Amino acid sequence: MLAVDTGIVEEWLSEFKTLPETSISSYATNLKDKSALISSLYQVIQEPQSELLEPVCHQLFEFYRSGEEKLQRFTLQFLPELMWCYLAVSASKDLQSSGCIEALLLGVYNLEIVDKEGNSKVLSFTIPSLSKPSVYHEPSSIGSMALTEGALSQHGLSRVVYSGPHPQREMLTAQNRFEVLTFLLLRYNAALSHMPAVSLQSLCQICSRICVCGFPRQQARKDKGVNSRIPVSSEFMVQMLTGIHYAFYNGEWDLAHKALDDILYRAQLELYPEPLLVANAIKASLPQGALTSSKEGTRCIQVEITPTSSRISRNAVTSMSIRGHRWKRHEQPESGNDATEMGNFVIPEISVTSVAGERTGNGEKSRALADNDVQHLQGVQETAADPRTDSKGMPEIRRQKSVRKMMEDGINSSGRVQF
């Protein structure tokens, strides 16, 4: 480690100790922009034999215990590198040189599993329903979903998965090691959007190293370092894939693609179904071409979001549209001369008691109509007024006019109805 880097780290260690509480917020805001300091801290963590490793781990724990959110994020960005150093030292059976790193990891874990009052936390995760749109899918793109009784009973119900309460740990052992590391990586993934590019690069590199250590792929790459196999759990690999998926779309395409292939390689060797499912799903959803670097800004997953504002379709069926449609059907012109006559012709209502406007004396003429004739006239009128058959309407109307004319002629000539 260079003397310049050592001086930067020592100045950082002494600066925070003399800092008043009123200046902590402004100090935390400016801390993330000190790239030289962050690079020097990475070098300290990567050297387990460094004399500055223990005070650096103690300072990072003080940052996390302070409760200041920006200071906690500053500590979390080194979490992947700290995990790798601990796992590498554990694989080499040299546990004494990783004591300060183990204490830091345990301290962060024990702080995260309890709330401010000291009670155990229970984390809840809501699994979205496929029948409702989300930022990841649209129900219409899935295809037709059969509306069975079971599907309708589950519609609108949200499934909640709980994690915890987690027990406090005093030391890391082979039995609880990945339980603690998985929870810490879950906490790291919750702050992924605030992690700098150097932290995402470290995450991808660490995932590749963990998955290929001690396997033929490491020998083919001629990677130097730990040659012993590092055991991993299925849950820990799923959490690694969460961070890698984010790195794909935020400027780390090459490193993330390499890490994804290494996780698939290790998951196939271990026969872990969960990492295989998640890794293959990520690989299938990737675009064909590589995304550009983070210098042009962060990338995001492009999806179609269902509009929140309610809109009425232009083809919506309303009472006004039905009424207008009915009027249009009645007003449609017919072809030929009959169409012109139909447009100006109003179907008259045939009244047996008052035909052609003439007065009847005492009703004797109207009573002279036979019952079958009245029924016949009413049937003619109903048939002609039916709008459902436009093609048959005109012949019935002409028949009605001829019948009426015959009735008028018969009444005028003899005063009686004649057929």
Largest beta-sheet characterization: 2 strands, antiparallel
N-end to C-end Cα span? 125 Å
Hey, roughly how much beta strand do the residues contain?
A: under 5%
Structural class estimated from helices and strands = mainly alpha
Principal-axis shape equals globular
Regarding quaternary structure, how should these chains be classified? single chain
Helical content (DSSP H or I, runs of 4+): 55-70%
Total strands: 2
Number of helices: 20
Order of helices and strands: HHHHHHHEHHEHHHHHHHHHHH
Structure notes:
The protein is globular, with a radius of gyration of 42 Å. By secondary structure, the chain is mainly α. It has a two-stranded antiparallel ribbon. Helix 4 runs parallel beside helix 7 and helix 11 (197-212) packs parallel to helix 14. The chain has 20 helices and two strands. 56% of the residues lie in helices and 2% in strands.
Write the layout of secondary structure elements.
Elements: H1 3-17, H2 24-31, H3 35-45, H4 53-65, H5 69-76, H6 79-91, H7 99-112, E1 123-127, H8 139-142, H9 149-154, E2 159-163, H10 177-190, H11 197-212, H12 216-221, H13 234-248, H14 253-270, H15 273-285, H16 319-331, H17 337-344, H18 364-367, H19 371-384, H20 393-414
Antiparallel strand pairs: 1-2
Helix pairs in contact: 1-3, 4-5, 4-7, 6-11, 7-10, 10-13, 11-13, 11-14, 13-14, 13-15, 14-15, 19-20
